[in-house]
Amino acid sequence: MVEALGLRPDTSMFVYAIRVMNGMWRSTWEAKLKVFRRLGWSEDEFRIAFQRAPLFVLVSEPKMRKTVQFLMEEVKLKGSNLSREPRLLMYSLENRLLPRFSVFRMMEAKGLVTDGSERKRLAW
Known about the structure:
Blueprint: H1 12-22, H2 26-38, H3 43-52, H4 61-74, H5 79-84, H6 93-109, H7 118-123
């Protein structure tokens, strides 16, 4: 199943993916997929995210929902860019993401960040 998701046994992420799959019931896996579909992610976006950081799937549904909502609505990241940086979903919203985004906003307001592209938003 891990290989079907695009992870090769010779990559370092393969071990993490096996750990995720080994510790999760099939029904839990399906529930996680449904959460991401409801959040607007495509199957390809989910697969890309899983290949980059398989452990993001272990984050609880409420935390995942809250973090994705913040990143897509407040930060204005697209699902496709978020799927390329799935580690963001594992970070604490209150202790890491919100404070850093607040600093980014402050710098943006002072004209220190002139380009508001998603690339710059991911840099914080």
